[in-house]
Amino acid sequence: MILPTNRLWIAFGLGILIALGGMVVPGLEQFVLPYNIFLLILWYLTGRLAQKWDVVRITRQTDPVLSVRVKNTITLKVESNLQIPITIHIRDEVPENSIAEGNEFRLKLSARSTKSHSYKLTPTSRGEWEFRGTYIRYPALLGLAQIEKQLLPPNPVRIYPNVKAIEEFELLKQSGHLNHLGMRQSRQKGLGMEFESLRDYNDDDFRKIDWKASARRNKLVVRNFEQETNQGVVVCVDVGRHMLGEVEGVRKLDHCLDTALLFIHAAQRAGDQVGLMLFDDSVQNYIAPRRGKAQVARVLEALYDAQAQPVQPNYNAAFSFLATRWKKRSLVVIFTDAENADQATVLTTALAQIRRRHLVYVVRVSDPKLREFLNAEVTGEQELFDQAAALWYIGDRKRAEIALRNAGINSLEAEPQDLARQLVTAYLRVKRLSLI
Fold it and tell me: Which H/E stretch holds residue 77?
């Protein structure tokens, strides 16, 4: 596309001065029309010539996986193909579901040079989206015309749950600072696990004392146990109507998927088998537990486009399916929501199919606004009504938790920012105490 420049408009403005000059020099105004036609021809010819230029080559580089609701780095590598310096304007059209910072910019390139420019992209939703092309704009000879071209075509891209949290988890784990996330790692190894070695007693748990070995050595020694690996962990995610609700402007399903992904990664790093089941009124996806990084990749592919549907979850069908497909005793973590005792009773009845064989945790997302309503100063009827409604709702959820615990089911409820931390901490405790 050939576009006019400010220089062209200034040149046309000179034609107006020529016309005004005709008031002083009679006959001068007759040159205005030929002058304007000459400018248009010059604009068109220089523009057509510039359209044929192979100005630059652009390559887009992204993070290996783009995460939802966090800033991802996008880098454009720009290589000049010209023997002369040039200034170009670049616009990278981002996916419609994203907010970009710095995707439109100017770049000065010397002859045959290469420069890179990075900007931040924050997707607001998961799924399959696309970059809508990369456009450049550059001046033609004489500067009367500028050319706009599309260099990169639309390119599909997948937006995943928050993978950035996994990177933070790995960095803190490697540096031994998981407590920065609020996750407690006990130094005490599990009891009743595979025997590894003996060492001197040093205010350890007395149950770990090896009395026979202590008698032989004439001093107290304790047994070290190697933490058991290759245990089963199954994550079940309700993608029914319960997950359509929003907490802090984000659907409960998305909060749960972010937590599930970090939890699955932690279990994989601990050497356990991890699996996944998505269900609403039927089982939508099932990945049998396995070990290894490849399994986490399979889970990630299953989660990136999972969407909640306005249907009632069929707990009986889901857990009956799991009971027949996976019989090894495992930790089963269920992301769903039970807002009152009646819903919890329906859930516990269905869980009877797997509760005797597996250790079950039900994980729910709580809304920080409820806490804000309770702590708010009452200055009028509206604040009083909000507090009463919050108390009523919290009471219902508390009764649901009691119903779960009375049925022998572990219940975990936390606000979004605390959910992953509390779940991973609970998992580490389960491992430490050899509960599976």
Answer: strand 72-80
